[in-house]
């Protein structure tokens, strides 16, 4: 554990990265993750209550949130290069990341996009890259390594948000990806306590990429009532329905029940996506107090292991306890020598 490649690559204390989580991030939350020893990540619509309508507005709001984050932490943090369904903004976001000195970029893999020019720009600027396929396979992991990615995320079907199209659990996909490539792998999907971290490492991952476990925290901007619902619920409560490109899961809300009923009646994935209100449905369900039934509450199977609302620091201390113990031992040994 003393020579963890992920901490060395990203310049962080612990090998834990916070997923971008759509509306659920802002400068305060991301800085809290980085200050606690992980890598915080500004997500799409970070700090906003309304999606920007133009590329200029998108870039302006992200630049402002990056600068707010820098004012709150001197530690590394990251952001994705895809923030909306308008993929033409990717080049501008790559330039923004480099201009503002963001240390890490998340590359969400989409078919038909040539990432090589972006990767070359990042390499030249010293920006580290984390590659995450929507549906991880040994083949796309090898392609990411050939592209020059620094780290690959292996996401299992246990995750929250848009789940992979192949129904392969986290602890089945992680060793497949770890065996396929020589660069470090992070496990994602359903990891919400130290047992999940230990299992990930045993299967060949060198760190974890988490989302749900950091939602019911003091610093997260999610509605307080939704935080409590996550604490009070388990994976057995979750509803699963089809959408684009694959599946989605939600805690029970009026809308989520309607989506499951539509799915059972044979509605198309496009119809389900439209009925779910896209990202707007998440904002209603998770961000706006008292409106959960109008939207959906996107979480992963790891909610079963979340038992209280805690600080970001407490969550990271819990998940990274083995790394903290190893670092303490190394520190004591070094001083004794």
TrEMBL record:
Q: Which Pfam families match?
A: NMO
Could you name the domain of life of the organism this protein comes from? Bacteria
Keyword annotations for this protein, in alphabetical order, are: Flavoprotein, FMN, Monooxygenase, Oxidoreductase
**GO-annotated molecular function:** monooxygenase activity
Q: Return the InterPro entries for the record.
A: Aldolase_TIM (IPR013785), NMO (IPR004136)
Does the keyword field hold Oxidoreductase?
yes
The yes or no answer to whether the keyword Flavoprotein is present is: yes
Q: Which CDD domains match?
A: NPD_like (cd04730)
Q: Which PANTHER family match?
A: 2-NITROPROPANE DIOXYGENASE (PTHR32332), 2-NITROPROPANE DIOXYGENASE-LIKE PROTEIN (PTHR32332:SF20)
- This chain belongs to the protein called Nitronate monooxygenase
Organism classification: Bacteria, Pseudomonadati, Pseudomonadota, Betaproteobacteria, Neisseriales
């Amino acid at each position: 554990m003393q020579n963890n490649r992920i901490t060395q690559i990203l310049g962080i204390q612990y090998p834990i990265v916070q997923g971008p989580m759509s509306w659920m991030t802002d400068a305060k939350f991301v800085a809290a993750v980085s200050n606690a020893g992980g890598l915080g990540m500004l997500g799409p619509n970070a700090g906003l209550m309304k999606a920007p309508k133009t590329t200029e507005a998108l870039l302006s709001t992200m630049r402002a949130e990056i600068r707010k984050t820098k004012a709150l932490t001197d530690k590394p943090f990251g952001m994705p290069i895809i923030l909306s369904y308008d993929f033409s903004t990717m080049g501008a976001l790559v330039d923004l990341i480099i201009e503002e000195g963001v240390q890490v970029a998340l590359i969400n893999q989409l078919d038909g996009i040539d990432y090589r020019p972006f990767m070359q720009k990042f390499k030249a600027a010293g920006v580290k890259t984390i590659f995450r396929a929507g549906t991880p396979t040994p083949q796309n992991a090898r392609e990411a390594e050939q592209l020059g990615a620094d780290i690959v995320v292996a996401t299992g079907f246990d995750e929250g948000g848009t789940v992979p199209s192949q129904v392969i659990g986290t602890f089945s996909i992680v060793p497949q990806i770890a065996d396929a490539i020589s660069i470090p792998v992070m496990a994602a999907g359903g990891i919400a306590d130290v047992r999940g971290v230990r299992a990930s490492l045993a299967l060949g991952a060198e760190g974890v990429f988490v989302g749900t476990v950091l939602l019911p925290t003091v610093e997260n901007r999610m509605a307080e009532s939704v935080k409590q619902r996550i604490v009070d619920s388990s994976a057995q409560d979750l509803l699963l329905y089809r959408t684009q490109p694959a599946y989605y899961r939600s805690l029970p809300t009026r809308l989520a029940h309607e989506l499951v009923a539509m799915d059972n009646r044979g509605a198309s994935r496009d119809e389900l996506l439209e009925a779910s209100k896209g990202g707007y449905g998440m904002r209603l369900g998770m961000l706006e107090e008292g409106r959960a039934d109008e939207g959906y509450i996107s979480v992963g199977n790891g909610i079963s292991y979340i038992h209280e609302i805690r600080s970001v620091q407490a969550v990271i201390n819990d998940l990274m306890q083995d790394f903290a113990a190893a670092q303490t031992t190394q520190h004591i040994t070094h001083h004794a020598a």
